[in-house]
Amino acid sequence: MIIGITGTLGAGKGTVVEFLKQKRFIHFSVRDFLTEEIKRRNSEINRDNMLIVANDLREKYSPSYIAEKLYEKAKHETKNCVIESLRSVGEIESLKNKGTFYLIGIDADIKIRYERIIQRQSHLDNVTFEEFVEDEKLETTSEDPNKSNVIKCIKLADFKIENNGTLEELSKEIDRICTEIKTKSPRPSWDEYFMEIAKTVALRATCDRGKSGCVIARDKRILVTGYVGSPIGVPHCDEVGHQMKTMIHEDGSQTQHCVRTTHAEQNAICQAAKIGVSIDEATIYCKMTPCSTCAKMIINSGIKRVVAEKDYHAAGDSKELLERADVVLEILGKVEKYENQ
Predict the structure, then answer these.
(1) Which of 337, 283, 285, 290 is nearest to 311 (CA)?
(2) pLDDT tier, 341 (very low <50, low <70, confident <90, very high otherwise)
(3) Chain-wide mean pLDDT for the chain?
(4) Distance between CA atoms of 85 and 3, rounded to whole angstroms?
């Protein structure tokens, strides 16, 4: 589950996030993202620069650039996530098109909100009431989808909160919303279902450089699983450190690999062979496009479909191998079917 938070200045977005963190949500912040970008530009960290940098990034790349960067991080987590401080219509529309995403909009009386920001004593909030009102106008009046318009974002929210009451009342409202989301959330597709299981398998991985897992399934049934780790009898990387090697790819890029570990796909295929389970015509679910070695094993084992959560930038060789072997490769939500015709 990925929840987005939008709202006016001082409405309580951060408090909502804290309640969700107590429910073990992982937090991704637009403010933190912008702070890092402002530091990179050697500029002063203040509210004006945050707005300027945010609008600049949206105009340069896309209205949804910042939100999509955070969403990409969130979707690879195994826990529920919250993305704080969404402010542009372009961001909201993009995330709503990505699948299971819910937006909470929060507002409150402007005088109550001003009192709150004064009480929290952040250096970003050291403003007069008149300055506060002017700051709000900058964030709520633009008709450009690249720029902040919090009022329009709140109108697009799946759930709206008027936070004029107590913390206890706000907490109860968050509990109600979370319960409603769980009730209305659609069932995952079979691909999403097996991919989520692969993420759980990955928690057993013993090399922290690439905590990945995989699932091999056929006819909606799991046949075998595997995760990254050293061969049997060889010390785990998490215990003794990594054994690294630099690889140079056809496109000139270089990547670092731990040569001690066995990839999740390899371990799963070996496990199937060891226990005598046929994986012919099966589908393998994995974190990213397999490497060339994994691709060869996938082809020789009879697997006919690969579903990866994300594309690996240096997987040109493996894609070519899969293409020649008439294997279907899918980056979850995007199909690349390779067939010799």
Answers:
(1) 290
(2) very low
(3) 85
(4) 11
pLDDT in tens, 152-167: 999 999 999 999 999 9
Averaged pLDDT, 315-328: 89
Average pLDDT for 14-28: 92
Residue with tokens 């609008």: 55
Least Cα distance to 241 among 227, 255, 258 occurs for 258
Cross-strand partners of 5: 104
**Beta-ladder partners of 160:** 105
Q: How far apart are CA 57 and CA 100, in angstroms?
A: 25
- The answer for residues whose C-beta is within 8 angstroms of residue 305's C-beta and 6 or more apart is 282, 283, 284, 327, 328, 329, 330
Q: 265 an active-site residue?
A: yes
pLDDT tens profile 116-135: 888 876 655 567 888 888 87
- Of 84, 75, 69, the C-alpha closest to 30 is 84
Q: How confident is the model at residue 261 (pLDDT cuts 50, 70, 90)?
A: confident
For residue 85, which of 3, 170, 181 has the smallest C-alpha distance?
3
Q: Look up residue 112 and give its two tokens.
A: 């109550």
Q: Which of 265, 309, 330, 336 is catalytic?
A: 265
CA-angle at 148, arms to 143 and 151, nearest 5°: 75
Q: Report whether 261 contacts 284 (CB < 8 A).
A: no
Give the integer Cα–Cα distance in Å for 24 and 327.
39
| Measured distance CA(338)–CA(324) in Å, rounded | 7
Cα angle 78, 316, 190 (rounded to 5 degrees) comes to 35
- Measured in whole angstroms, the distance separating CA 254 from the mean position of its chain's CA atoms is 25
CA atoms within 13 A on the CB side of 42: 0
pLDDT of residue 209: 67
